[in-house]
Structures
1.
Amino acid sequence: MKRRKNVIMIALLALVTGSTALVYAEDSGKAAAPVPKVLYDLSALPEPVQQMLREIIVTAEAGDIEAMRPVLESNELKPMVAATYVDDPIAYWKEQSADGTGRDVLAAMLNTLSSGFVRSGKGYDEAYVWPYFAEVDINKLTPAQEVEFYRIVPPKIATSIKKTGKYNYYRLGISPSGVWHYFIK
């Protein structure tokens, strides 16, 4: 059973990283991929996505990371929370947390969801992704978008991201059917 979970998590990781790599891939022989439209209107999202967002936000705002467990387990597979398989996302977040409670992770989740988002991928790979910075060229942000970027990403990390041009901080993805796919850094 654990081997099956590992295989599934590796496949999901490949899907997420592959989608991200496609956004940044350049081929001088072809026209650049269209820039995804940045969206802010949560009411325009499919109802299952809205429902999952409500569950995530209400639970995160309560400040009890253990309360996030039923939300995580509402999926057939738990969302990815790291580049490798994590059996217990709550324990992982507590371990990664600055104070061991995971509240800073919940805060990062809420900050991530406070930004605009994009619709990424097609068909089975389609997802709504927060923040939109994960899917756009960081070096082409407008001044207003840069302010939004700095609201979510600590300045020291933001400087590193801007140097590489690739967003590598928290991101969250939900499929149109309301399946929470990942919250990874």
2.
Amino acid sequence: MDQFLGALRWRAELALRRLGATGLAACVILVGCMALTALNVLPERAQRSELLTSLADLRARQASPQSADAASAADPGAQLARFYAMLPGEREIPGVLSRLVEIGSRQGLTMPEGEFKMIGDDQGPVVRYQIVLPFKAEYRQTREFVRAAMRAFPTLALEEVSYRRDSPGDNVLECRLQMALYLNAAYPVRP
């Protein structure tokens, strides 16, 4: 067994001498590329095939919808009722505002004050609750706050954003966000 290992070692040393430094570097790069392929490309291929399978399933379901579901989805009255049911009621405003403050504090924002105004017309069940929030923060914090708030409240719309910087080197900006929360005035409490 020792003779076999000795011969194997001797052949490996001989092969390394023949390769030289350039050949050895090329072998190391080749092994690194193979490892990179195994770690990155192969999992991506598997994920791609799963996504293609899901897409094929979705297309098959879309091609043959259930007749009852298709009838209710095509009914404009049912669609409108689902839309109104999605909107929060006016009584949910305090909870929405406290959740916005909570989202802001997680992003490191301090919102000392705000302006709030109900804007609506008497012709429809949808009203707009305008929220104006002035605060100081970095641009990244503001962007993350808006993203998190929009995810938390699908009926929240960003109407206006304004920034002011005292000097070009400042990271902290004076921000003013104007948002609108769309509410269902016809159904003050959401089911």
